[in-house]
Amino acid sequence: xxxxxxxxxxxxxxxxxxxxxxxxxxxxxxxxxxxxxxxxxxxxxxxxxxxxxxxxxxxxxxxxxxxxxxxxxxxxxxxxxxxxxxxxxxxxxxxxxxxxxxxxxxxxxxxxxxxxxxx
Length: 119
Known about the structure:
The chain is α+β, with helices and mostly antiparallel strands. The chain has five helices and five strands.
């Protein structure tokens, strides 16, 4: 869970505003992909009822910007799901700038890269 906490901390440092609202209204897939790309044995999950993406982190459960969330109505996202979310939900922040910031912080993140055991 160290990597999840580190990523959330970096995002809160970067935005210095209500980070949660940014990732609950258009940015959930960005966060899910960021977590998935940095935490081994994680999966991008989707709740089509609420059109929300989150990340399943091994046996720890499903996480979004708010922390651990209920797994109710979530399933593993397909390529089609991801395309739908990318087409219909645009983050309300500059993705390029954020990626540049995260690239700079990548060294710090690599120190925390974890191997999440499968359960």
